[in-house]
Amino acid sequence: LGIIKPGTSIFDQKKKINAKIMVDGSIKHKESAGSIHKVAAKIMGTESYNGWTYWYCNVGGSIVPIDNLRQRFLSKNI
């Protein structure tokens, strides 16, 4: 579905909280599952939260926000 493969771990900026990308593109953190935004909001204790800036992943040894990957994808596919 996307540019991050199912089974990949994503995490917060401090690497204290992690979630796994599921086959359907949702993420799972402990018992919470859903969109990157919904799960980040639950963790932060708010009604909504920008998951694009909350979640990070390891790309070739560099820790980057998943929003960077989204921006690269969009710029190549517009």
From TrEMBL:
RAMA domain residues: 2-76
Pfam families: RAMA
Protein's name in the database: RAMA domain-containing protein
Provenance organism: marine metagenome
